[in-house]
Description:
This protein is mostly beta strands.
Amino acid sequence: xxxxxGRAMRFACLAALALVAAPAAAETxxxxxxxxxxxxxxxxxxxxxxxxxxxxxxxxxxxxxxxxILRPAIxxxxxxxxxxxxxxxxxxxxxxxxxxxxEHRSFQQVxxxxxxxxxxEVQSRTRLEQRLRADGxxxxxxxxxxxxxxxxxxxxxxxxxxxxxxxLFVALNDTDWGARRGFDQARSFVGVEVPLGGRSTxxxxxxxxxxxxxxxxxxxxxxxxxxxxxxx
Length: 232
């Protein structure tokens, strides 16, 4: 075999390996999940407001507990359409056969309602998180932006409404526990907002969560989402 033939054979072998590895490099895994969120929101005193969330999340349908989030915050209402918050989240991820993976998050949030009409409303939520995890020493900085649109089916706010929203997550730095700068995940939701009496509501629908696991791996979760907002 000549040198040229040897180089050609090596090139062909490398090309074949690249073709075999290509699907693995772009691997996508999927899961069916159920998320439940119970949130209290209300006034504390004057313009001082707050909220508190409890969020258990299951994976593989309802077969296992995947995550628990406890998230309180206090805020200041600057005007009818704008509120700023400082909050804290405790995130617990159960691990089969090992200790739970725990995370502390401090966050700052701006909630803004740029449009509110007779039948429709547009809301924006901007959040900056500082993430500390038990499996590393670095602080991960992450920005989140959510845009939400609801439209009352009767033409009057407060009645049953169609609801859609999207949220983009962007990691602002690399960490020793695995976060990588850039696109982190995206969520999109379609469903309904159901009045429960007073200003309390329930939001029920389908949520798609697409997560970048890095190295060409993507996680897509199909989520049945149920959120209860208690607003006394």
